[in-house]
Amino acid sequence: MNAYIISIGDELLIGQTVNTNASFIAEKLSDINITVTKITTVADDEEAILNEFKTALDTSDLVIVTGGLGPTHDDITRTCVVKYFDTKLVESKEVLDDIETMFAKRNRELTGINKAQALVPEIATPIRNKIGTAPGIWIEKDNKIFIVMPGVPAEMKSMMKDFVIPNLEEKTKEAGKVIKKSILQTTGIAESSLFEKLGDLDELLGEAKLAFLPTILGVKLRITVEDTDEENAKNRLVEIEQKIRSKAGRYIFGKGDETLEEVVGRLLKEREMKIATAESCTGGLIAHTLTNISGSSAYFERGIVSYSNAAKVEILRVNEDTIAEHGAVSPEVAMQMAEGVKSTSGADIGIGVTGIMGPTGATTDKPVGLVYIGYCDEKVCTVRKYIFGNDRLLNKMRTMQAALDLVRRQLLGISSDD
Amino acid sequence: MNAYIISIGDELLIGQTVNTNASFIAEKLSDINITVTKITTVADDEEAILNEFKTALDTSDLVIVTGGLGPTHDDITRTCVVKYFDTKLVESKEVLDDIETMFAKRNRELTGINKAQALVPEIATPIRNKIGTAPGIWIEKDNKIFIVMPGVPAEMKSMMKDFVIPNLEEKTKEAGKVIKKSILQTTGIAESSLFEKLGDLDELLGEAKLAFLPTILGVKLRITVEDTDEENAKNRLVEIEQKIRSKAGRYIFGKGDETLEEVVGRLLKEREMKIATAESCTGGLIAHTLTNISGSSAYFERGIVSYSNAAKVEILRVNEDTIAEHGAVSPEVAMQMAEGVKSTSGADIGIGVTGIMGPTGATTDKPVGLVYIGYCDEKVCTVRKYIFGNDRLLNKMRTMQAALDLVRRQLLGISSDD
C-alpha cells in the first residue's frame, strides 16, 4: 500500500509552522509497513486543494490529508472533499452528541458554528474527535482510502492512534499478511558500533527486516516481521528481540516511544528512591527533563545548577582546593558534586555534571565537548568521562542523556564497559 | 515571484526526520515577499525527482531543492539536475580550492570521492559551502531560477544567508521594487489583545502590510513596506515601527530572530548584574534557557530547582510556616524563593517560580496552570500571578518566558500594567 500525505495551510507555506504532522503520520505509516511516496503542502485555496486531491488519488492507494477542518472561513477542506467526491453534507448524530457533551462539560454555549461541525460528507465515516470539535473523515472509494484529519497535532495524533492506524492495520490484515513491528531504543552507542555488535544480520534476522534509525539522543532499532500467521509473527519478533538484547542489551533502554526520563522515573519509583542533581554545564537541563514527567515530584528531590564556583562550594560542599588544583571541569569535582548533592539533600542518588559545552571555554588540555558525570548512591560512587561535539545545545542534550543513562545502568546493575 | 520548494530524502518519507528545512526556506522567502505556493517531499528516486522538477518548473518562477547532494550512492540529486537540464558536469576550480583548504585545515587526506564534489553542472553557478564540501547549484534558464542546496540544515542555512537571499533580493530589485521588512517580537500578550492595542490598522500602516505570527512564546509582528525608493522604504518602516512601539512597546522584547534569553543576557551584561533562579514548577527550564547562551556564566550565578519543600526551606530559607499556611504554590512562597536565592547567592537579581503544571496536582482553589513568579533586586520585590493552560510542557515553557520577560521589564523600568 502506497500513501500520499497532504498538509493544507498557509501558515506552513510562510514557514510560520514546522510541518511536524507529516513526519508523525509518515512514521506511524512506516511502522505498519505502508510506504509514503510523497508529502506535499498546499495553500488554503480551493483550486490547489482539488488539484492535489486528484494527483494524490491518481497515484496512491491511501491519501491522508490534515488541516483546514476548523470552523472559520479559511477552513475549506471539508467543502473541497464534498466537491471532489460529488457528495453532500449530512449531520452525524454521534458527532453532534460528542460536541454537545464537550460544550456541556466546559459550561460553554453551543453556537451555530459549533453545531455545523457535526456535518460530514454523506459518503464518509466520521472519525470522532476526543480533544476538539471537528470530526475527521474516512472515505473508501474505488479501492482507495481517503482520510482527512484536523491540523491541530493533538487532535490528529489521537485520531491516528485510536482509529486510523488500527483500521489501516485491519486493512493490511485482510490481504492475508500479518506484519509485526517492534522498536528498541538504544543510547550511548554509535550506529556503526551497534551495527558491529549485532554481527551477521542475515543470521540474526532470517526473513525479518531491521532498520537503524539514528536520532540526536540514540539509535532506534526497528524490527519488522511479515508472516501469514499472527502467532508465528509474534514469536519470531520475540526471538529476534531476545537475540538483539543478548548482543547489545546494555544499550537498550526502552521500547516503542518510551523516553529515557520515563524509564528512569519508573525505576526510581519502583525502588522508592529519590534523586538529586548537581549540574554545571547542562545548566538545569537534566532537572528540566526529569520533571517533564508528570508525577516526578515522587522521586525528584532537588536540583542545583551550580554555575559559579561559589555555588559548588557553598551548596554542594565541593572542596575549594580541589577546584583550584584540578579545575571546575574535572573528574574530582564531578564526583564531589554528586556526593554533595546526595548528602545535603538526603536523596538516595546524586548526580554531578561538569564540562565545556562550547563554543568558547576550551583550554589546551580540555577541549570543547569534554564532560565528566559523577554518580553516587548508598553503595557506589563513580565518575565517567565523555567527549561530545562542538555544538552547545547538542552537547547539553547528549550530556543529559548520558547522565540519565548512567542512572539507568546503575539502577539495573549493568556493569560499565570499555 | 512564486516559489516551489522540493525536499529530497527517504528519511523524510519514513518520518525519521522532521522537515525543518522547508519551513526555514519558506520563512526566509516570505520575508522577502516571495510567495511559496507548494512544498513537496520526494524519495531518493530518479523518476520521482525528475517528475517533480518538471512540475515545479512548469508552475513556478523559482524552485528551491534541498537534499541528495552528498557523496554516497543514494545522493542522486546532482545527476538528476544534469539529466533534467541536459548539461554535463565540469570541475569548478573555486569549489575544489574550498574543499582542498577545508581538508588541509582538518588534516585529512583528500580522496577521489571528495574531489568529485567539485563537479558542478556546466550551466550552473556553484554556491560555495562554508561548512561542508558539497557546493550548491544556481541555474537561471527561461526566466526561471532553479536552486539546489545540501540537506544538512547548517549548510543550507549558511548558503541561504550568504548567497541565495541576497541574490534573490537583487532580482526583486531589478524589477524596480524595494521591499523592506522588519520583525518585532512580542511576548506576554495574546494576538487578539495586541490587535486591539494597535487600533486602526489602515491609519497605522498606510500602504504597508502587517502580519501577526503567533508562536507558543509570543506573537511576532512582521511589517512589510514596498516602495520604489530605498530611502523612502526605510523611513516608512522606521515610522511604522515607532507607531507600533508607542502603542504596544512594553510587549516588544526584540527584533528579527532575537530570543528573549539573548535580550535578557545582554541587559544583564550591560549592567554588570548577576541573576540567580529558584524554580519549582519549571524544574530547571529557566536556568537551562538562560545557559543556552554562550557566555552566560558572566551573568548567571546559580539556579536552585527546589522541587521538595525541604529544598525550599534548607537552601532558599523559605519559611516553613508560610508553606504550611499558604501552600507551596502561593505568592508568599514565590516571593520568599526569589528573596532567598538572591540573598544566599549574592546575585543582584533573584527569581522564584512556583505553580501547578498539570495534568495532576490541582486543588479546588488552585487550578492546573496557576503560576506565581517572584522577582527581587536591590530595590524592588514583586510577585505576579499567571494562569496558563493544561499542557505540562507548554505550561513550563510559558512560565519560563513570563519569568524572563518579568526580568526584562524590571531591568528596563517598564511599569506593570493592568
Summarize the structure.
The structure is a homodimer of 418-residue chains. The first copy, chain A, has 418 residues and is α/β, with parallel strands linked by helices.
Question: Keyphrases for this structure?
Answer:
homodimer; 418 residues; alpha/beta; Molybdenum Cofactor Biosythetic Enzyme, Chain A; Alpha-Beta Plaits; Maf protein; 3 domains; 6-stranded mixed sheet; 5-stranded mixed sheet; 16 helices; 42% helix; 25% strand; globular
List the helices and strands and how they pair.
2 copies of one chain form a homodimer.
Chain A: E1 2-8, H1 10-13, H2 20-31, E2 35-42, H3 46-59, E3 62-66, H4 77-84, E4 89-91, H5 93-106, H6 112-115, E5 119-121, E6 125-127, E7 136-141, E8 144-149, H7 153-174, E9 178-186, H8 191-198, H9 201-205, E10 209-215, E11 218-227, H10 230-248, E12 252-255, H11 260-270, E13 275-279, H12 285-290, E14 300-305, H13 309-314, H14 320-326, H15 331-345, E15 349-355, E16 370-376, E17 381-387, H16 392-412
Characterization of the model:
Two copies of one chain form a homodimer. Chain A is an alpha/beta fold. In chain A, 42% of the residues lie in helices and 25% in strands. Chain A is built from 16 helices and 17 strands. In chain A, the strands form four sheets. Chain A has a six-stranded mixed sheet, with helices on both faces. In chain A, strand 10 (209-215) and strand 11 (218-227) form a beta hairpin. In chain A, helix 3 (46-59) crosses helix 4 (77-84) and helix 11 (260-270) packs parallel to helix 16 (392-412). The radius of gyration of chain A is 26 Å and the shape is globular. At the A-B interface, helix 2, strand 2, helix 12, strand 14 and helix 13 of A face helix 2, strand 2, strand 10, helix 12 and strand 14 of B. Strand 2 (35-42) of chain A pairs antiparallel with strand 2 of chain B, so a sheet runs across the interface.
